[in-house]
UniProtKB/TrEMBL annotation:
The keyword Signal applies. It comes from Lentinula aciculospora. This is Ferritin-like domain-containing protein. Residues 365-387 are annotated as: Disordered. Residues 365-381 have a biased composition (Low complexity). The lineage of its organism: Eukaryota, Fungi, Dikarya, Basidiomycota, Agaricomycotina. PANTHER family: DESICCATION-LIKE PROTEIN (PTHR31694), OS05G0151100 PROTEIN (PTHR31694:SF26). InterPro entries: Ferritin-like, Ferritin-like_SF, Pigment-catalase-like. It holds the Pfam family Ferritin_2. Residues 1-18 form the signal peptide. SUPFAM superfamilies: Ferritin-like (SSF47240).
Length: 406
């Protein structure tokens, strides 16, 4: 996660003596120092965010958010937090070696992102992707080849974090695109700034923050609404445009502000801007840095149009709206038949079903299901490749395997 925008700087996933950048006494260009200070602050933000979430939430909170095993999410988030803490430590050592005092004036407030595990996980996903975008955007700013090399070694780790969090969402695509998107420092701050508490002067101006105000989930076909200090009652929104940018596209998708509908072609992270005209923004961060039509943003959202089996195995409910927990076990054909029979289905094919027995129907109702034999008849037999919610709502079949007759 890392807003870390440029932390490229030096962060390293392992111990200090394994870092890609050794702290040695030397001179540094002013821009490199600025990038290091910014990176250090963002890494602190990320590390503290994960630490706060792990401290607040218990196993039962992760189970209530839909995780099949709370230990899976907790272990991965703990690993990510450790990486971020190591990054911050290495950055501080490097700044000290350059004769600079690491910035200690910034503090953070994560209350809005830690209301529950689902909100924390969704926020972590955006923050992690922001780190990837930040590393890419900072590559053209650094003048020290050592810092650039270190940035590359950190970028690959941030991308791994992002993939893990996409899987933990339960609704997203692990690797949604063949390309990632880069952001400028001012754009990164537009996304990260809401977590700063009080004054935090990093020597970099932030773009005005943009917020998507839609309630509920956002997906393909959703008409987006926004709020921003840059868009007040005196602004004629009919003259504005929303711009959606995704990795791999050379230019953003430009739409009228009042007709900002998510296209059916978007899957995964999207950076959304509000501009004063309909001129598309360039995805190349060097060229976009000189754009003079950006009024607010970006904000980063995930459009989960292509959920994958891996994520659904880890987390049965990406929304986390259910308050009940569930357990998973492998049962014999006879047991499966008796359970399904009680729910209105008469037979089960001769295989062993791996099923999730929910403690209440509300939890089961949040799961994605397929139709039994493509029929609404509760007495229809199960196919031996059926997965999903069984008739009656108490059983969620997540897989089948053959059992030898002897």
């Amino acid at each position: 996660m890392r807003f870390s925008t440029y932390l490229l700087a030096a962060a390293v996933p392992l111990a200090a003596n394994a870092a890609p950048l050794r702290a040695t006494k030397r001179q540094a260009a002013a821009i490199d120092v600025t990038v290091l200070q910014f990176a250090n602050t963002l890494e602190q933000l990320e590390s503290q965010f994960y630490a706060a979430g792990l401290s607040k939430f218990q196993d039962s909170d992760f189970s209530a958010a839909g995780f099949a095993a709370s230990s899976i999410a907790i272990q991965q988030i703990t690993n990510i937090q450790s990486d971020e803490a190591t990054h911050a430590s290495i950055l501080e050592e490097e700044l000290t070696a350059l004769g600079q005092n690491p910035n200690s004036t910034c503090s953070f407030n994560f209350d809005s992102a830690l209301t529950d595990v689902s909100t924390m996980a969704a926020t972590a996903r955006v923050v992690e992707n922001l780190g990837v975008m930040a590393y890419l955007g900072a590559a053209s700013l650094l003048t020290d080849p050592q810092l650039l090399e270190a940035a590359g070694s950190i970028l690959t780790v941030e991308a791994r974090h992002q993939t893990i969090l996409n899987v933990l969402s339960g609704t997203g695509t692990a690797i949604p695109s063949a390309f990632d998107l880069a952001l400028t420092p001012s754009e990164v701050l537009a996304v990260a700034a809401p977590f700063f508490s009080g004054t935090c002067d990093l020597g970099i101006p932030a773009n005005p923050t943009l917020t998507v105000t839609n309630t509920g989930s956002v997906g393909q076909g959703t008409s987006l609404t926004f709020s921003s200090t840059a868009i007040n009652s005196s602004v004629d929104t009919s003259t504005l445009f929303c711009q959606m940018m995704v990795g791999g596209n050379p230019f953003s998708i430009s739409l009228p502000y009042n007709q900002c509908v998510v296209p059916s072609t978007i899957n995964g992270p999207v950076a959304i801007y509000i501009t004063s005209d309909d001129n598309p923004l360039q995805s190349n961060v060097v060229n976009r840095a000189s754009a003079n039509n950006i009024l607010a943003g970006p904000t980063v959202a995930f459009i989960d149009a292509q959920p994958e089996t891996l994520g659904q195995m880890v987390r049965s409910s990406g929304t986390g709206t259910a308050s009940a927990s569930s357990s998973t076990q492998t049962i014999s054909p006879d047991v499966a038949a008796s359970i399904v029979s009680a729910q209105g289905a008469s037979t089960v094919s001769g295989a062993a079903a791996t099923a999730t027995s929910a403690t209440d129907s509300a939890a089961a109702a949040t799961s994605t299901s397929n139709s039994v034999n493509d029929s609404s008849d509760p007495s229809a037999p199960f196919r031996d490749d059926f997965t999903g919610l069984a008739p009656g709502g108490a059983i969620n079949v997540i897989g089948w395997s053959n059992i030898p007759s002897n």
